[in-house]
Amino acid sequence: MESYHAYSLPSLAVLSLCMSFFSVADAEASTLQRPFNNNISAGFVFGDSTVDPGNNNFVQTLFRSNFPPYGKDFRGQTPTGRFTNGKLTTDLFASYIGIKEYLPPYLDPNLSIEDLMTGVSFASAGTGLDPLTAQISSVISLPKQLDYFKEYKKRLQSAIGKERMESIIKDGVFLISCGTNDFVVNYFTLPIRRKKYTVSGYQQFVLHNLKQLLQDLWDEGARRIAVTGLPPMGCLPVVITLNSGNAILERGCIEKFSRTGMEYNQMLQIELNSMQGRYAHLGAKITYVDIFTPLVDMIQGLGKHEFDEVSHGCCGSGFLEAGFLCNPESFVCFDASIWFFRFNYPTEKTYTKFLWLAVLSWITDSGTDILLIDQ
Questions:
Q1: Own/partner pairs, 104-110, CB within 8 angstroms, 24+ separation
Q2: How many CA atoms lie within 13 A of 274 on its CB side?
């Protein structure tokens, strides 16, 4: 497989120092005491299954995970609607900065005002930046997620007043994690978009929709926004299975998919830097979060020794099982900590060891008041 070391994390020195905090011998190791003072009021999340803590539980769609074996390593072995065995990156982040243990789904009808004040996720598994992607899966589109955020603001304002609401938004951190479904599910699998767009044209189309979302969030008061790039899509077990010449014996990453992600990420970084430059004088902290590099490092070399399997999911055959295809009747490996993927999605250990460190490095470089190391 081709090496994809195209980017580096914003602060590798910080990350290497931070690693001492993140022992994952057990699931509770990722829930830490708040070791610093910071000015983050809340977390707000938009995107797909990588950050959906259960909004799809309240949507008429097949893209749900509120049943076993999902949540097998979550507290109480509860299948909450998270597409993993335990916590998501956003849960780990919220816990680390001390605002709450888990970042809940906005559509949960049982949320209190206190829950709302410290942030929620509007994300929906199966969605994308292309409106057609959400239609295919009958899930919540990004424009609808934005509408929910506007509704959220009204609910909060009626409860605590406009000034406090605006302060929470201003001091909140916004994360957008989306795009994989647009390419893997929509463009490369179905023929509709390929009839209209070249790969490059579709990358620009998806990026245009992201730029609109960013502008809309800015207009709604968001000032600190992180956007994750695409992962090495060619390394996803389902992509390998559907595109390999011999899916059983040849489990290497599919270069075409990962290359497309790399190119998109390069364009994304340029756009984010441009927007940051335009709005810096207004207090903007808009930046790119690299998840491509840490995932490739884990799969190809750095950190690979920590996992016994990096090309199969830990459910059923491990080739295709995702969503409802991984269910209570499926075989599930006993110890998810030695698997990179579970249910064709990253395991909690993968999120803990690599992905959310990228978010923390963004917080450090963005100028947010966080002390990662107790000097």
A1: 104/53, 104/54, 105/52, 105/53, 105/54, 105/55, 105/57, 105/58, 105/81, 106/55, 106/148, 106/152, 107/54, 107/55, 107/57, 107/58, 107/59, 107/148, 108/54, 108/57, 108/58, 109/58
A2: 9
- The answer for 44, left when phi > 0, alpha when psi is -120 to 50, beta otherwise, is beta
- Taking 70 as the pLDDT cut, the residues of the chain under it are 1-38, 245-251, 300-325, 327-375
Provide the token pair at 32: 């830490």
**Burial class of residue 154 in the structure, from the number of CB atoms within 10 Å of its CB (0-12 exposed, 13-18 middle, 19+ buried):** exposed
184 by DSSP, 3-state: which? helix
Neighbours of 243 (CB within 10 A): 17
The neighbouring-strand residues paired with 286 are: 225
The residues near 211 (Cβ < 8 Å, ≥ 6 apart) are 271, 275
Locate 84 and state its tokens.
Answer: 């993993």
Which pLDDT does position 186 carry in this prediction? 96
pLDDT of residue 301: 59
- Token representation of residue 184: 């893997």
Angle at 231 between CA 129 and CA 90, to 5 degrees: 75
Q: Is the pTM of this model over 0.85?
A: no
Q: Do 84 and 345 meet the contact criterion of CB atoms below 8 Å apart? A: yes
Short-list 248, 142, 133, CA closest to 184 = 133
| Region for residue 38 given its phi and psi (left: phi exceeds 0; alpha: psi -120 to 50; beta: otherwise) | beta
Looking up tokens 């579970």 gives: 342
What is the rounded CA–CA span in Å between residue 52 and residue 103?
9
What is residue 294's predicted lDDT score, i.e. its pLDDT? 77
In 171-313, which ranges are continuous DSSP H helix?
180-181, 192-196, 199-219, 237-243, 255-279, 292-300
Q: What is the pLDDT of residue 346?
A: 64
Ramachandran sector of residue 183 (left: φ over 0; alpha: ψ -120 to 50; beta: rest): alpha
- Quote the tokens at residue 317: 């055959």
Say whether the peptide bond before residue 109 is cis (omega within 30 degrees of 0). no
Q: What is the C-alpha to C-alpha distance for residues 117 and 177, in angstroms, rounded to an integer?
A: 21
